[in-house]
Give the backbone structure.
Amino acid sequence: MADQNNIAVDIRNVTKMYGAFSALEKVNLDIRDNEFFTLLGPSGCGKTTLLRTIAGFEDITQGEIVLYGQNIANLLPNERPVNTVFQQYALFPHMNVTQNVMFGLLRLGQDKTSAKFRVAEVLELVQLTKFADRMPNQLSGGQQQRVALARALAPSPKVLLLDEPLSALDLKLRQAVRLELQQIQHQTGITFVFVTHDQEEALTMSDRIAVIKGGQVQQVGSAQEVYEAPKNKFVADFIGETNLLDVRVTDLHDGKGSCILPGGVQITCPAADGAHPGPGHLSVRPERIAITSPNEGLVQGKVKRHIYLGTDMHVEVTLMDSETVTVRMQNSSQIQIPEAGQTIGLEFEADAARLLVD
Amino acid sequence: MASKKVDLRRFPGFLPLTYLCLFLLYAPLVIVMIYSFNDSASITRWDSLSLRWYHDVFFGVEAPKFRAATINSITIALMAATSATIVAIMAATAMLRSGRFRGKSASFALINLPLMVPEIVTAVATLIFFSAIGFTAGYLTIVLAHIVFCIPFAYLPIAARMQGIEDVYEQAAQDLYATRFQAFRLVLLPLMTPGILSGFLLAFIISLDDFIITNFVKGAGIETLPTAIYGAVRQGIKPNIMAISTLLLVVSVVFVALSYFVGRMGEKNNDETSTKGDLI
Ligand SMILES: Nc1ncnc2c1ncn2[C@@H]1O[C@H](COP(=O)(O)OP(=O)(O)OP(=O)(O)O)[C@@H](O)[C@H]1O
Ligand SMILES: [Mg+2]
């Protein structure tokens, strides 16, 4: 755990009820200073709700939200030194770009001259200097998105909240803006709390990711940690693709577990906290499995079909116990793709697999 | 969407009926307008084209009476429309921007109910109310009565407009350190301007045109344009009445059209920004 001074937002035991439905359930998170922190989860899991409780648009039913040591749970949105980039941008339609960006500065009591200076600075940062006099409806979606970012950055908030700011952009633009956002975060040193349901976005941009499901935090960690050492089945499945094999766990010790694979081979591999003997799930990423000759490898199966994905090829393999396993192979002229119906063996390193809890 | 549109032209008799209705509605107005340009003291026999009766309205014997009535009408309409618009803005803000509260739908019904109550009932009730609290009928009673019955007319376009503005703009304002009142003044109010203007114009013309309630609550010595016209007509219809009616008609049409287009214009602008954000 980071030391106390290092924490930007400390979310302590926060619960948010809508009637009898709990949108957030005992959420605990430490968001560190100067960190690109991502809230990741499927639609309806409570990401927006969590962000809005930090911004102050939703009251919390229980818990504390501490911003750099100050409990802000009872402050009004305008009293909290955080700014939001809204999903729909919410640019003021009756103000031009400059006026939009200047809005927060003027409310904070800055005089017009220094506010203008700051606006120019921020517009430069997001490369919108040319558009300073345009009205929002004269801008493209990508430009509007950057105005929204500039407007939220202008007052130099302690924490910037971003609610799926890239979801309205097309793929190419989204990838460009990802890099830009990361750069801006580094340049400004402002803590970013970024919401997305796109795991690729989360993996490529974040210092740390909180995976959320049904209003509960499932796991917090770096991209590598959540990808390579998922705590449970949900995280493994939601982040990237994975194969979940039904196995029998026989023995557990020192974070390792022994289990019997379908077909009877026994291996010892890393195990998540809370794994227990008995029926369990073994997660193996498709890119970590190799195809071998029949009767070699750890499990045996029959090729069901191939799916062509451009750079990659997915080979779906049906195991003896009728589970389906996906193998990802990189497309190249050298590799031999087995025919459908062919019997093959599958191999993977024990360290690439992981025993999970439900 | 799924159901096929009914083509009214395929129903025999509908088209002639439509024309008949339009004729009955507009023929009297057209005749009044035409005969207001008639150079004759008769209201039925056409003589020749002239502006004689318009001249008479402004400079004839009855001109001072009509001028005083017009000034009354306009000042009353201005005060009534302004006050009603302010009340309507506050009501709409309370109804649409304060979350849920008890009696919300009842309040909504109450604000709009006067639109459905027969005007004569309102007139009688208002008169009884004023005499009960001991107000002497006069200019003030007219203004008060007009403010009240103009409120729903101002409220409708204002509330419609406010409903079309998502909360997210005010939230963005508050997020950027605006107090709730600043968010209202700097963001919501400017975005609502077309609706407010539209509501004001509608209230203004409703007040300007009102006869029944005014006739009940006005004192003996005071006239508005409609009551003055009514008074003049009772002594026999002269062509100058046609001229003055035509003028009033033109003013009304202009205001109603303005109210409509101002309301529409703002909506269009708003649509453009919001859909653009969604599409791209
Ligand atoms: N005002 C409300 N009243 C009742 N339930 C609500 C309200 N707002 C949100 N919810 C519920 O809370 C849950 C979390 O909603 P939230 O908007 O935080 O989801 P999300 O993770 O942002 O999803 P998405 O990715 O679709 O935006 C949802 O199940 C939603 O139905
Ligand atoms: Mg959301």
